Amino acid sequence: MRADLRRTGLRRPAAPLTTGLTATVATVLTTALAAGLLLGATAAPAAADTPSPIGIGPVSTDAYQRGAFQVSAWTDAPGVTVTQVSATLRKGDTVVAEIPSVPEFTWNRGRFGTNHDPLKLTEDGGAVPALGRYAVDVTATDSRGNRHTRTDAGVLDFTLMPQLEFGLSAPGWDDRNAVPSGTLTGVQPGSGDIVPLSGRGVDIRRTTPPESPVQSPVTTETGAYTGEAYGDVRPGDTFKVAFAEDSDEVHGSVSYDHSLHTYRPHVVTVKASVDRARVLPGQHAVVTGRMTDPQNGGAPLAGQQVKVGPGALQFYDSAYAKVVTTDADGRFTARIPALPGPAGGWSAVPVDPYQRFSGDVGGPLANPQEARIILGSRVLSNEGRVSVTSTLRATYDLKASFDAQAVYLEVSADGRTGWRQVGSTKANDYYPTTTVTATSRGGHYRLRHPQSDVFTEAVSGVFRLVRTEARITGMNAGPEPVRKGAYVTATGTLQHHTSGAWRAYGNGAVALQFQAKGSTAWRQVATGRSTAGGKVSLRAKATVDGTWRLRYYGDATHFHAPVPWADYVDVR
Fold first, then answer.
1. 559 secondary structure, DSSP code
2. Which residues pair with 337 in a beta bridge?
3. The dihedral sign for the CA sequence 393, 396, 397, 403
4. Contact 336, 308 (CB under 8 A)
5. Rg, the chain, Cα only
6. 321 CB-near residues (< 8 Å, 6+ apart)
7. Which of 74, 88, 122, 216 meets the CB 3.0–4.6 Å disulfide criterion with 137?
C-alpha cells in the first residue's frame, strides 16, 4: 500500500455506505470493495504467505575444502522431489557470485554441495573476487515448479586455512643450543594453493622444565620465521608452537607439541667387565671400566658420568643403578648390589644425553632369588622305597617364574653330617610341586636345591623315616618225599632286628608259597601268624613236585623280609 494512502486513512460515514447513492454508484462501490481497491481495505492473503512444502537446511562450509559448502533441501509433498538448488553469495547487500546449480550427492540424497567443483578466486579462474566470509542465500525448486528461497541460510568461510611447520636445529656435545624455525602458510579455498602468511607472530614455548616464556618471532614475506636459541636443551625436550587468526583473510588456529629427537651425539668407547658371574643376596658385584675418545686418538675422557647397574639400563631405569665419574685416566668403578629378583645381567650407559657408546656395554650377571622348599607327604614303604612330595618357591615372590630347577633327596645317619644323594627330581614355575623317590632302608632325610642362577641354595627341614628289618630263618618243608594228596608242612622262625640284635617277632603275618616244577610263578597256598616265640608252621596239600617257601611282607613298621631259602619236595 502506498504511504500517502496509509497516512490518509478512512472516515466512518454516519449513514450506511450505499445511502443516497444511485444504484450505479452502489454497484461500483460494491465491486471495488470486492476487489480490495477501496482505501483502507485489507487484501486477501497472497500465495507467497502460504507455508512452502519445500524445506532448506543450514549451509555449512566443508571442513577440508573451504571453497565448498553443503546444504540439505527437501519437500514434504507426496510424490514430489527437489529438482534444483541454486545459491547466491552476498557481502551485505552486494551479490558476489551466483551458483545456478548446486549438485546433489549421489551417495546422500537430499544433500547438495559444491565439493566436486569448489568455488575459487577470480585469479584462479573462479567467480569469487576476494577472500572473506559471505552470506549464502539458497533457492530450491521442486518437480511441480514450486520455489522457495532461504535468505542467510549460512556463511561460507572463504578464507585461508593456516598450517604450520616447526623444527629445531640439531644440538650437539659441543654446542647444546637449539634454534627454532619454520614456516607459516595458508591453504587457499578452491585451488588448494599454498600461500605464505607474512607479518604474523608465531608463539613458541619450551614446555620441558624449566619452562621458558613465550617468544613470538614474526614471519617474513615467504612465511618463514626464526626464533631465539634455547640454551642447554636435551634430547626429548618438548616445545609447543601455536598460531591463531580470525580475519577475512585467515581464519583458524593450529598448534602442536614437538619433541627434540634430532641431535649430534658424540661417540665414545667404553670397555668394562664384572668381577663375578653371580651375585648373591648381601653381596656386591664390582664393575670396572675405562672411557676413551676415538675422535681424539683414543685419549681418556675424564670427569664423565656413567650409570652402571643390573639389567638392561638402556630400556629402563633401575633404582639399584649407580652413577660414577671417570678419573683422570678415564677409569671408573661401580659396585652393583644383589637384587630381590633376577636382573638378567649388568650394563653401563652414558649419563650425558649427547654421548653414545660405540657398542653395548654389559654382560651376564645372575642374581639368584632366595628360595624355600615346602615339604609335603613323606613315606618309607615296606619295600624300602622313600617317596617325598615338596614345593619349590621363591621366598618373597611366590609368583616368580623359573625354569627347571633340580631338587635332591639326601640321607644321613645322624641328620647332621654325611649327607649323600639318593634321588632327584626337577621343578619349574608350572610344576612347582613334585615328588622324588629313591630306594632306601630308612634314616634322616632332607630335600636340597643346589645354588643356581635362578635360586640360592635351599634346604628343607630334616625328617626321619624308619622301619625295622625282618627275616625268616631255619625254613624247612617236609616230609620228603611226600605222598600225593598228603600235607607238606613248612616251618621257620620270624625275627626282627631291634635293640641291636635279631630277636623273635611274634604275631607276624606269614604266607606259604608253592612253585610247581617247571613253572616260574609262585602261588600262595596258606597263611598264618608267628607264635610269640616267632615260630612259623604252615601246611598245604601236595599234588605235584615243586618248591616251597615262607614269605613275610612286612607291616606298618617292618620291611619285607628277604626271600628265604626254598625247599624242594618230591611227590610220589
1. P
2. 284
3. negative
4. yes
5. 54
6. 307, 308, 309, 310, 313
7. 88
Whether residue 45 has a cis bond before it, omega within 30° of 0: no
310 closest CA partner among 359, 345, 362: 345
CA 350 to chain CA centroid, nearest Å: 29
Q: What is the pLDDT of residues 333-376, one digit of tens each?
A: 999 888 766 557 899 999 999 999 999 999 999 989 999 999 99
pLDDT of residue 400: 85
Instruction: Quick: pLDDT tens for 251-304.
Output: 999 999 999 999 999 999 999 999 999 998 889 999 999 999 999 999 999 999
CA distance 513 to 519: 13
Which residues, in sequence order, are bridge partners of residue 361?
A: 348
pLDDT, tens digit (0-9, with 9 covering 90-100), for 114-167? 999 999 999 999 999 999 999 999 999 999 999 999 999 999 999 999 999 999
Cα distances from 150 to residues 85, 144, 147, in angstroms, run: 11, 19, 10
Distance, CA of 286 to CA of 272 (rounded, Å): 10
Contacts with 13 (C-beta within 8 Å, 6 or more apart), sequence order = 19
- What's the grid cell of residue 554? 612286612
CB 85 within 8 A of CB 112: yes
For the chain, what is the mean pLDDT? 90
Distance of CA 461 to the CA centre of its chain: 42
pLDDT over 90 (residue 30): no
C-alpha–C-alpha distance, residues 203 and 196, integer Å: 17
**CA-CA-CA-CA dihedral for 315, 317, 318, 322, to nearest 10:** 110
Residue 88 falls in which region: left (phi positive, over 0), alpha (psi -120 to 50) or beta:
beta
Q: Cα separations (Å) of 47 from 56, 144, 202, 286?
A: 19, 15, 57, 100
548 close to 522: Cβ distance less than 8 angstroms: no
Cβ-based neighbour number of residue 530 at 10 Å: 23
Q: How confident is the model over 377-410, as pLDDT tens digits?
A: 999 999 999 999 999 999 988 888 899 999 999 9
Among residues 126, 188, 136, which one has the least CA distance to residue 162?
188
What is the rounded distance in angstroms from the CA atom of residue 312 to the CA atom of residue 346? 7
Pairing mode, strands 405-412 and 443-449? antiparallel
Which cell numbers in the block locate residue 295?
A: 675422535
Q: Which tens digits make up the pLDDT trace of 294-313?
A: 999 999 999 999 999 988 87
